C-alpha cells in the first residue's frame, strides 16, 4: 500500500503524538500569568506546580520498561489516553496543590514520549535513517510548544484558560485511538513489503538486535554508555524546561508582554527549535560523509549545539525585548540541535528490547535537571532576577559535551553495510 514510505508515515504518526504530548505539557507555562492571578498562586508555589510534573516524568524508566514489556501498540495508546484524561481534569482545578498533583500524574503518563518514539525508530529504521527519523519526531516537541500560546489565547478569548486543557485532552484521546488502530511492528504490519522488511533488518547493526527476555536494568545501570547520554541530558534539559515553563512568565513580568504578544512571540523559539531538530541530523550526515564514525559525528553535532548555546548568556543583559526573543530563538535552535542528537544515541547504543528502558533512565536524569533548575528559579528569581539563570544555561552544555566525549564508547565495529550515513 505505502511501500517504502510506510516507515515515514509511521514516524509522522509518532510526530503527531509528540505534538500533542508537548502541547498538553506546554499549556501550563503559557496560561501561568492568567491562572496565577485568578487562583492567587505565588511564583514559588508555581515552581512547585512545575516540579510536580518533573517528579512524575522522572518515572520514565518505569514507563519505558512497561513499553519494553507490553509493546508499543497497546502501551502508547494506554499512556496517551491517560495523559489526555488528566489534561482535561486540569480544567476543574481550584488551587496550586490540586494542580501540582495533576501535574505529577501527567508527568508519569507523558514520560512515554521519548522512550516510545525511540523504540519506534529502533524497530522501523535502518542505521542510515535513524538520525533524521529522530529529528522528524522531535519536531513535534517544538510544534506542540508553538501551538500552546495560540490555543491558550483562543481559549481565553472564547471561554477561559481552562478550555485550553479540555481541548488538548480531547485531541490526545483521539490520537490514542488512532495509534491503537494503525500501529503494528514491522513483523506484523499488514502493509509492509518483504523488500522493506529486509531493508530494515539488513540496515540495523547486529549488536542492536533484540535478545530474548526483559531489559536487564541492573546491567544497564552499570554501563558507562548509559551515563554518557544521561548526564549530558541532565545538564542540557533545563534549557527546554525554562523555555516551556518559565519563558512566558519572564516575557510577561520582565519584558511586559501582554497575552496577545505572548501568542505572537512566545512560539518563535520553538519554531527555531524545529529547525534545530533537522540541523543536528544534517551535521551528523555531513560529518559522516567526511569519513567520521556515527558516534563521533553525533558528538560533533552536540558540541556545535553547545557552542551556539552560549548566546543564551546574554538574554537577561540586552535592553531590547526583540533582541531577547532573538537570543531565546538561538537557544531553542541550539538546544534541539544537541538534544535530538543525544536522545537519538539511545537507539545507536542499546538493543531494541533495551531502548525504552535506557531512554527512560536518561529521561529521568534530564527531568531531574529541569526539576532542580525550576525549583532554583522559583526560589531565587524574585531576589536575583532571571539573568544568572540564563548565564547558567549558556555554559551547562559545554560541560555536557565534555561528558559525552569522555564517557560514551562506540560499540564494536559493525559490518560495512551498517556504517552508512545516519
Summary?
With 422 residues, the chain is mainly α.
CATH homologous superfamily label: MFS general substrate transporter like domains
Number of strands: 0
Which structural class do the helices and strands define? mainly alpha
What amount of the residues lies in strands? under 5%
| Level-1 CATH class name | Mainly Alpha
Question: Strand-and-helix sequence, N→C?
Answer: HHHHHHHHHHHHHHHHHH
Radius of gyration: 20 Å
**CATH architectural category:** Up-down Bundle
What does this structure look like?
This protein is mainly α and 422 residues long. It has one domain (3-205, 213-411): Up-down Bundle (Growth Hormone, Chain: A). It contains 18 helices and no strands. It has helices at 6-39, 43-57, 60-70, 72-89, 96-110, 113-124, 127-158, 161-182, 194-202, 217-221, 224-236, 238-253, 259-265, 268-289, 294-308, 321-349, 352-384, 387-407. The model is unreliable at 414-422 (pLDDT under 50).
